């Protein structure tokens, strides 16, 4: 860890979690023409992302003790999100806990919400190509017939 206290770093990203994260992180390579993403300590960036997400701190108010700029942390967060890191990490953590027998799969909670469409909108089906139907939201006064 560069500047972050070892205690804070270990609380936010324990070694076992980092071992799960490391293979899931997309690699950043330098472009042949130069420039691109500068190499930095991935664990420090990941720890800073976890800090922002768990503390509610604004990206621009990230403490300098993490040793990386708020812009870099936010940029990496965006790239990781687009790469599906959080979904894959969630699955990896569940798989690891399941393998240890620390997850009880016998019960689960499903949350669903039913919300009335605002403005009296309704759903209709619109044919797009041969045999492919797409749901389309129709506004009041719009044609509700299949086109």
Characterization of this structure:
The protein is mostly helical and 147 residues long. Helices cover 39% and strands 8% of the residues. It contains five helices and two strands. It has helices at 6-12, 15-21, 42-55, 70-82, 85-100, and strands at residues 122-127, 133-138. The protein has a two-stranded antiparallel sheet with strand order 1-2. Strand 1 and strand 2 form a beta hairpin. Helix 3 (42-55) crosses helix 4 (70-82). The longest helix has 16 residues, at 85-100. It is globular, with a radius of gyration of 22 Å. The model is unreliable at 125-144 (pLDDT under 50).
Brief summary of the model shown:
The protein contains 5 helices and 2 strands; from the N terminus they run αααααββ. By secondary structure, it is mainly alpha-helical. The relative contact order is 0.11.
Structural class: mainly alpha
With strands numbered from the N-terminus, the spatial order across the biggest sheet is 1-2
- Give the CA-CA distance, first to last residue: 60 Å
> What would you call the shape?
globular
Count of DSSP helices? 5
Radius of gyration: 22 Å
Helix content: 25-40%
Oligomer: single chain
Number of strands: 2
Name the average pLDDT: 77
- How can the largest sheet be summarized? 2 strands, antiparallel
The helix-strand sequence is HHHHHEE
Name the poorly predicted regions: 125-144
Hey, roughly how much beta strand do the residues contain? 5-15%
